[in-house]
Amino acid sequence: MRKLMLLTGILGACALSQALPLFNVSIEAGGVEQDPSGFVSYKPKKYQDYIDLKNDAHFSQKTQPYIGVRITNNLPILPNLKLDYMPMKFSGYGTLNHTVKFGNAIYRGSANANINFNLSAKMNRFDILAYYHLPFITAATKDMLKVRLGLNVRVVNFSETFTGTATSITVNGQTFSGNGSYTYTESKSLTVPIPMGHVGVTFSPIKQVSLVGDLNYVSYGSNNYYNYNAGLRLSPVGLFKSAIVPFIQVGYRYEKLKIDQSGVHADVKVDGPYALIGVEF
User: Is the full-model pTM beyond 0.85?
Assistant: First the structure.
C-alpha cells in the first residue's frame, strides 16, 4: 500500500508539473548503507531479556533502497510536499547461555545448555512531509540560503521475530522439556503513524553546488524518534537550457528510535552513508 501511494504520488506529480507551471517536481532514488545497533525486546522482565543487535544477534550492515518525490510551488499559502519510502530489514542469529523471555515464551538456558536463536527486525518507513520555506531568509541571502519548516508524518511498520531452540521452553505456563530440544517462534508487529517536527537547510554558494541537511524529531512519554542527514548535492542547473535537470547527492544519515509501546521495548540506531540520483522538472 505504501509503495502504491508513493507511485501514485510520483505519477500525479509528473502530471501536475506538466499541467501547471507554478509547480516543480523532483524525483530521486538511490541506496543507503544501514548499520544497525542497539537492542530489541518484547514483554521483557529483566535486563537479560533484551537482545543486543550487534553482540547477541550479530546484525551486519546492509545497503537498502530509497525513493522519494518532492513537489514545490510558488504559491505562498500552499505547502510544499515530499513523499519518500525506505525499508529497513535485518536478521541475524546467535547463542545465549542464560534464560531469556521474549513475548509469552521463556527459553531456559545456562552455561551448559545454550539457546540457539534467530532474530529478525524490520522498521520500514513511509514519510509524508508538508513544509514551507522561510521567504525572508531566501530573499535576504539572494537565494543562497533556504530554510524549511514543516510537519512530517512517518508511518513506521515495526516488527520483530525471535525463534529460539532450547532444551526447555515455557509458553503461557506450559513447559516443554525432556531429552530433546524444542523450537518456538514469538513475534510482534506494530504499524504506527508518528507526527514529527521537520527543519531543513540548503546552502548554495553557487547554483550548481549545494550543502543540504534535514532533521525530523519527536519525543513523547518514553518514546523518542529522530533522524538527520547531511549531504552534498551537485547539479548542472543554469549551465544549459533544459526542462529536465539531473542531479546527484551523497552524504550521511543517522536514525534513532526508542520505543516503549504495546509490550515492545527497543532502542535502535541505524546510520551510514547514502548516494542518490534524481531529476528536477
Answer: yes
